[in-house]
Design brief:
Blueprint (H helix, E strand, L loop, with lengths): L8 E3 L4 H11 L6 E2 L17 H16 L2 E11 L23 H12 L6 E12 L2 H8 L9 H7 L5 H11 L2 E11 L15 E3 L4 E2 L5 H7 L1 H15 L2
Parallel strand pairs: 1-2, 1-3
Antiparallel strand pairs: 3-4, 4-5, 5-6, 6-7
Helix pairs in contact: 7-8
Length: 242
């Protein structure tokens, strides 16, 4: 089904691994899901925010304005205590040089190398923030009658947070752009285990389970992962649109 604005929900990412995971997490909502590829949308958003929430909002807003669809974006990262929270916001760009990203395997190897001087356990956590944004015409329809509409919304939305991120985020929160967060705790291990998932999953261990994220079944991951926990919180908003 579509939402009550008559449109499907756009999964606002070009990362095919994230798309697959989000589709699985959202399938029980019954909401029609589309990807940028489904609507022939090519859009790259510069992730230069200072928080996961800023990056998630920036992506959701940009995709919503470009597509005219309600859009859901996430930003996530791995925070390792021994490295003072690194790679954090830069998890997807960890070790990048001259704009060239490392592969998943290269990033994992670099992380293990950088942790070498520190004693184990290498405690860590995954964090995810999901943002749901509305294109301008839906936002105007939804909030203009409530008196909550910020006078600067259209300008800010059109700029996609480029001019003043903090002010824009405040305006967008006033308009109901939703942010929800999820996290999961564990530790980094030096050997890769498991074939599921992506990114840092093969070296992120749940000590209480004795399994890495990559060794979890899909049902387990959809209960325990940082992204799953954020999506669970976001479902209330999404279902209110259906």
């Amino acid at each position: 089904m579509t939402n009550h604005f008559g449109s499907p929900l756009l999964i606002a990412t070009n990362n095919t691994d994230k798309i697959e995971e989000l589709q699985d997490l959202l399938k029980d909502t019954g909401i029609e899901l589309v990807t940028p590829a489904d609507i022939q949308l090519e859009l790259d958003v510069l992730e230069d925010g200072q928080t996961y929430a800023e990056n998630a909002a920036k992506k959701a807003i940009a995709f919503a304005q470009a597509s005219g669809l309600v859009s859901l974006a996430d930003d996530s990262g791995l925070e390792v205590d021994a490295l003072d929270g690194a790679p954090g916001l830069y998890s997807a760009r960890y070790g990048a040089t001259n704009g060239k990203k490392l592969t998943y395997a290269e990033r994992r190897a670099l992380l293990i190398k950088n942790l070498g001087p520190y004693p184990r356990p290498w405690t860590a956590r995954f964090k995810a923030t999901i943002a749901i944004a509305f294109p301008a015409h839906i936002a105007l329809s939804r909030w203009s009658s409530s008196g909550a509409l910020s006078a600067t919304y259209q300008d800010h939305a059109a700029k996609g947070l480029q001019a003043n991120q903090a002010e824009t985020l405040r305006s967008l929160r006033d308009l109901g752009v939703t942010h929800v967060e999820g996290s999961c705790d564990g530790e980094i291990i030096p050997e890769e285990r498991g074939t599921g998932g992506f990114g840092y999953d093969p070296i992120f261990l749940f000590p209480e389970l004795g399994k890495t994220m990559a060794e979890l079944s899909m049902n387990e991951k959809n209960r325990l992962s940082h992204r799953a926990k954020a999506v669970m919180k976001a479902k209330d908003t999404l279902l209110s649109l259906s």
